[in-house]
Design brief:
This protein is α+β, with helices and mostly antiparallel strands and 133 residues long. Helix content is 30%, strand content 30%. The strands form 2 sheets. Strands 2, 3, 4, 5, 6 and 7 form a 6-stranded antiparallel β-sheet that branches. It has a two-stranded antiparallel sheet with strand order 1-8. Helix 1 packs parallel to helix 4.
Length: 133
């Protein structure tokens, strides 16, 4: 599944690059986070585990891991944040976030609306170029 999503991202990027007449080849945009679709049932099950961090029963996408050097961390997104919107579009699945990032351009700024505990934050994340292998 992840390989399919990555390939879709690459194909979209090269289509956009050729439309703009770019000569150089650059990788697809990324923000370097791992995430999972959050459902109220998952939050409830997670909250019964005394070793897990507390999740508010809500929908959205939970940030489960991110690189300290990645664009998302640099912008202020943290592990445990719940992504509810990107660029004003409601987020209910991981695939939705991946598609929005894939449809963006390297260096563009994406507006994330996240829940962190009982707070709602807006964080701008600048996409970066996916490093080569």
């Amino acid at each position: 599944m992840l390989l399919v999503i990555f390939m879709v991202s690459v194909i979209r990027f090269f289509k956009k690059a050729s439309i703009r007449g770019k000569k150089e080849i650059v990788g697809p945009p990324y923000i370097e986070i791992q995430m999972m679709t959050l459902m109220p049932e998952l939050a409830e099950r997670n909250n019964k585990d005394p070793n897990a961090f507390y999740l508010l029963p809500s929908s959205g996408v939970l940030v489960t891991l991110l690189s300290e050097e990645g664009p998302a961390a640099a912008a202020g997104i943290r592990r445990g944040d719940t992504i509810t919107q990107v660029n004003g579009q409601t987020i209910t699945t991981v695939e939705r976030v991946q598609n929005i990032v894939a449809d963006s351009i390297v260096g563009s700024s994406l507006q994330f609306k996240i829940k962190r505990g009982d707070r709602v934050l807006k964080i701008k994340v600048r996409t970066a170029q996916l490093p080569n292998g």
